[in-house]
Every structure is written in C-alpha cells, then in structure tokens.
C-alpha cells in the first residue's frame, strides 16, 4: 500500500554529484541560485562573474529572454513528440538552421542530447559508413592522448584521459591513439597556434602501417579544452586531413567546445581551415538552456548509409529525445541570437585583449605556461610535489569566494567566458585570478 511521504529536507545528500569531490562539497557547499548576463548569484546574493560560460556552453550569456520565451511557447504547444518513424516541424527547422552554419557539404544533422552521445553517435556512423560501402574490415577507431570525447564507452575509449578510464575496466576493442600535441619544451607561452608539432600527425601513417586498412575513423578535438587548452600546432590538422583522405579514413572533429563562436568562427573547422567528414557539437547549440547535441555529416557519408539500404531503417541508432521539441526551440532561438549579435565576431574582436590579459599572467608565482586561442585560455601551474591538482583546486575555490568562477583541470586553470564578455569583465577575471595565485601557497 502506498503511503504519503513527507518530503525530505534538502540536506544535499540525495544528489550524487558528477565529477565532484562529493565529501568535500557537502561539507563546504558552494551553491549557485540564479544567473543573468555575465554572472551567477549565490543564495545570499553574492555575484560570481562567470569565467567559464557555465561549462564552456553559455556562449550568449545567461538568462537570455529570447531563449526562455521560445522554450515557454513550445512547451505550451507540444511538450514532446517522438522522432522514431514520426516527426515534428520544429526538429526539421532546427536541423536546417544548424546545416546553414556547418562547412559546405556537411548538410545532414542527427540530433542527440549531449556531447557524450554525439561522440558515440559519430563513431557508430563511421562504422556504418564503411560497412555500407563494402569495407566491413574497417572497425578500428583512433583517438588521441589527452583527448576528451565524453563519458560513454565509445567516447571514453577513444579519449585519452587515464582518470576517466581506470575505474571501469575494459574499453571498446580495436582502439588506438595518436600522441597529444602538447610540447612545453618547444611551445611554452605560445599565442594562438604554436609553431612546433605538425609532424605529430604523421604518427597516423605508422598506425596505418601497423593496422592496415582496418581503421574506420580518427577523432580529435580541433582544440582540446577539457585537458587543459591544447591548441593545435600550425599545419597539424591539415596534415591529419591529408592522411585520412589518402588512406580512406573518416576524420571526425569533436566541436562540442569549439562550436558556435568559441574560437571566433561558427566552428573550429571554419577558423582552422580544415573540413572533417563528421562533426560533433553540443553545449553552445542551445546556450545550455535545454540539453541537446548533434552530429553533422558530409552528404557523402549520409547518402552512402541511407542509399545503401533498399528499404527500411538505415541506421539502427537514436534516442528517445533526439530532436526534442523544447530543445529544438531553444536551438533555433540560440542560433537566431548567434547570428543577430554576431557572437563569432564578438569573440574575434575580444580575443586580442583577452590573450594579452592571459599572457600577462606569465610572471605570476608558479605559472609555467600560458596558452590561448579565441576566447579560451589555459594557465598552467607548477604542481605541488606529491599533490597534483591540489594547488589549482585551491585557486578555483579562492576565486569563487572572491566572486569569479574559473575551471581547473589538473594544475591548469581554464578560462572560457561567455562571448558577450567585455573588457572590464576580462580585467576582473584575470585580476582576481592573479590575486588568488598570489594568495595560495605554492
């Protein structure tokens, strides 16, 4: 017999927080209660300048009325409709808006709900493509050391972060990795793309010699954000593109962070001048107002899979919430803002001032590297002996208590403010970070 339960008091116990030190947080909680423009606000009303666009995702700033109203309107019209063998107009409109922004010839859009789902979807599409064209032996997937492609088993397997894998045993089979491109001995304190490291792409040639024609796809981030702002060396992505084309391998760009203006163009592919075969996206797609991700593919990839099946379902893959009506409405409103306010252009206009402020940190105590591209910067600190990551985490907490939100990965402080950022925000962001670096003992 069911009984009416008295609601539990909110004592923070029930929520198992992701990627968090749960014991520490619940003993010393830092709670965000409201957001507007460039800032969050705590429960007691303290303003916290957002130096990370939430989690690389609120590119247009917080609480945008246009997005809120679009979601409210759609919720009143139709809250949900399936997209398995059915459709609803707003999902098709959202896909068309995305296709207007992707590189020429990448006009097919598959909706998912997160960057993790986008990565796994892209990998499955790559495998399906080769099977459809009669090369079923192409089952091997190549990622990169220090790559991050979400937390699904596919993305985790091609990713290159040991801490994300060590608890979970076996990964996907038939996976290999390229070396990362971080070369501090040669590229320390580089502005924009570093000079050295293009030759690291040639390791793919070695993998082809090792594995033969079994490689289906290579997946990389144009700029690796989650592992500490690793900017691609000049010529690296171009060389990777050439090698993939030569050997019949699909090139996948994970644009979950670099998409929608973060590095001064609609996508990293546009800014860096290299077009992949498949591209993942999420985060900025809806300004994070409703979870949504997507995979864009070349017309060739789509047509090979779809035309390769005489009738019936062509790709046995999808999610209940693919193209969700509320997410689609949020995406359309976000992309309207993106265009009307020229967010990529605003990013380009601010990147010089932002980069100057980042590199002014090079003389702060314990700073061993600074790297930047677009509106992304990484400030790397000398780790404490035997306690990697501890110093940066203390700096993160100190900055928060001083009213600025940063993000840390290892001993790297990563900054990626909303693209509506202005010079006073940049001054406050880096000024507070400098104060925290000086205040936290080495």
UniProtKB/TrEMBL annotation:
CDD domains on file: OAT_like (cd00610)
UniProt entry tagged with the keyword DNA damage: no
Keywords: Aminotransferase, Pyridoxal phosphate, Transferase
The keyword Magnesium is assigned to this record: no
Pfam families named in the record: Aminotran_3 (PF00202)
Gene Ontology molecular-function annotations: transaminase activity
Record-annotated membrane-spanning stretches: none
Cofactor(s) this protein cannot do without: pyridoxal 5'-phosphate
PANTHER family cross-referenced by the UniProt entry: ADENOSYLMETHIONINE-8-AMINO-7-OXONONANOATE AMINOTRANSFERASE, BETA-ALANINE--PYRUVATE AMINOTRANSFERASE
Family named by the database record: Belongs to the class-III pyridoxal-phosphate-dependent aminotransferase family.
Protein name: Aspartate aminotransferase family protein
Taxonomy of the source species: Bacteria, Pseudomonadati, Pseudomonadota, Alphaproteobacteria, Acetobacterales
